[in-house]
Amino acid sequence: MVLLRLNLHGFKSFADPVEVQFPGRIVGVIGPNGCGKSNIVDAVRFVLGEQSLRLLRARKIDDLIFAGNIRRPATSMGEVGLTLDNSTRWLDIDYPEVEIRRMIQRDGESRYFLNGAAVRLKDIQKMFMDVGVNKGHYSVIGQGQVQMIVSASPEERRQYFEEAA
Amino acid sequence: MVLLRLNLHGFKSFADPVEVQFPGRIVGVIGPNGCGKSNIVDAVRFVLGEQSLRLLRARKIDDLIFAGNIRRPATSMGEVGLTLDNSTRWLDIDYPEVEIRRMIQRDGESRYFLNGAAVRLKDIQKMFMDVGVNKGHYSVIGQGQVQMIVSASPEERRQYFEEAA
Amino acid sequence: CRDRFADVFHRVAAHFQDVTKKLFLGGEGKLILTESEDMMESGVDIQLRPPGKGFTSIASRSGGEQSLAGLCLLFSLFMEKPSPFCILDEVDAALDDVNVGRLARLIEEFSEKIQFVIVTHNKVTMQIANCLFGATMEEAGITKLISVRMKRAQEAALAASA
Amino acid sequence: CRDRFADVFHRVAAHFQDVTKKLFLGGEGKLILTESEDMMESGVDIQLRPPGKGFTSIASRSGGEQSLAGLCLLFSLFMEKPSPFCILDEVDAALDDVNVGRLARLIEEFSEKIQFVIVTHNKVTMQIANCLFGATMEEAGITKLISVRMKRAQEAALAASA
Ligand SMILES: Nc1ncnc2c1ncn2[C@@H]1O[C@H](COP(=O)(O)OP(=O)(O)OP(=O)(O)O)[C@@H](O)[C@H]1O
Ligand SMILES: Nc1ncnc2c1ncn2[C@@H]1O[C@H](COP(=O)(O)OP(=O)(O)OP(=O)(O)O)[C@@H](O)[C@H]1O
Ligand SMILES: [Mg+2]
Ligand SMILES: [Mg+2]
Hints:
The complex is a heterotetramer, with two copies of chain A and two copies of chain C.
Chain A: E1 3-9, E2 18-21, E3 26-30, H1 37-47, E4 77-85, E5 97-105, E6 110-114, E7 117-119, H2 121-129, E8 140-141, H3 145-151, H4 154-164
Antiparallel strand pairs in A: 1-2, 1-4, 4-5, 5-6, 6-7
Chain C: H1 2-23, E1 28-33, E2 44-49, E3 56-57, H2 63-80, E4 85-89, H3 97-110, E5 115-119, H4 123-126, E6 131-136, E7 144-148, H5 150-160
Parallel strand pairs in C: 4-5
Antiparallel strand pairs in C: 1-2, 2-3, 6-7
The structure holds adenosine-5'-triphosphate (2 copies) and magnesium ion (2 copies).
């Protein structure tokens, strides 16, 4: 059970700080259409270092940051933190809990932090690639992704295998 | 309430003759995955004269005719009949009930019948186009079609409007 | 040709405003020409303002919001070129219970003039059917149809929406 | 490069056979290379034999059958490159109640080694969650999360599957 909690603030529809806890082996997320469930899924990809705007369901960087509503202004940046249990040291880093945090600004600049210390994207990617979590490409099955692999041409489908290599 | 019944025999998974009745204003079709619900929808498009294999979820003509199972051989042809109530003469033909029937053979040849009399496809198309039923293009919303119009490009979406013109 | 498209577009856009107001209680939708100067080339954009939110292109909305807006457009095209019947195949797949209920009420409203055949797995949608037929495959690969009692489906739907 | 793809392909194809047997009780699936001679260019086809039916390409199957097969492939790729957690967003949308139940049992089986976060509207799927969180927007456009009692969801699910 490695996921402990996900903290979001300023990311997409999370204008206020929200903490998602993962207290069990199977955690369910439910709620009405348009309330932010898939935004939570996007946040996990985001904090794991996803660079493709398409996979983050965004057309420009701005789309990742809270755009404001009738009463509240847009925020200038968005931030997501994912805290993982590392008591078994499955991640090659000497901490019992590991928090990865990513902040993004409207100019597109992203900053990454590992337990509070500034790091580069590739440090985070390396740490995860060693244990099979590649930007969440296999760990995250997004809404509609099942239909996509079914309707893909045999050649497009090959790319999924090449990514798993 | 113009739909009276749909008769299928040899079309897709309807190896044996099946009659679907439409005794109400809102008729529900339910059942497990893969049992033939969308095949009924395809049958309506088919009998209204649909020529596009893609819209009939077929890759070749053969796919429209019962392919056989472990115990039963494939059939040589498929047939669908749709009977409509014409007591208000909404269709420009002097019968209180109108039955359109379409038979298709493995060589691809289709035959059309109006109340038992052999007619050409364009006779049926003309009768329906005058009352707004154009091969079921607006009357039939297939599985996944809603998502298609949403993910279409603005230019692709224009075609839907051009068809409605 | 350009005039025909322009006429159809404006009428369908008017229907779209009305239908979206019904499906998005407190919200609304707009159809926008991508090239308002060039009717020969213009595409059609879908903009949506769900209740309380701002207008954006449909692309930045959730799966269920997109589904509802797509249905509004298909219904608007249908109102432009109406037919006495309409067949819907699992159009409720992405919707939450409240939206399934709103769609069901819209279908009931249209059913005064249009006869519907609705394929669904959703127990709330099943409630508006006058009669239900079940597709089964007792013999593998061969479809049979059976009549299904409304009462049992209704009880399940009432419990499911509780 | 060709050897790597070939190795990955064969291992994933083996997983696919096992997983499809679990999701299609009495049925099975196969992954087929489109160009078995030319590993540099070959694409991957999905063939499916639902219980009692014959083997065909996934393209001639129903929406729900395709969905189930697509999930089997994604799980098979996942087994090739496992991660300690897996996030699923509304993957049950096209499934009937029996298939939702089979998917739920498969997830429970995997959950011994993998932690799952599952977004769903389906009351049968909700039953396997140890805990439920509800995303809400009391203030328009702003997401809040609340804890949801399992019991009420369970009662609704039991009634829905009755
Ligand atoms: N940068 C942003 N600022 C404000 N709101 C945003 C931003 N990005 C996305 N949203 C909004 O978040 C809302 C919720 O999206 P999300 O896709 O998470 O819904 P969902 O709960 O998954 O719904 P469904 O059940 O329909 O899939 C959408 O209306 C979307 O427009
Ligand atoms: N020509 C044919 N001969 C025999 N079987 C066929 C033929 N064409 C299609 N089928 C089969 O009919 C089955 C049912 O298809 P259909 O798409 O109608 O299912 P459905 O009830 O809509 O299911 P779902 O709920 O998953 O959408 C499929 O397994 C398909 O392979
Ligand atoms: Mg979603
Ligand atoms: Mg179907």
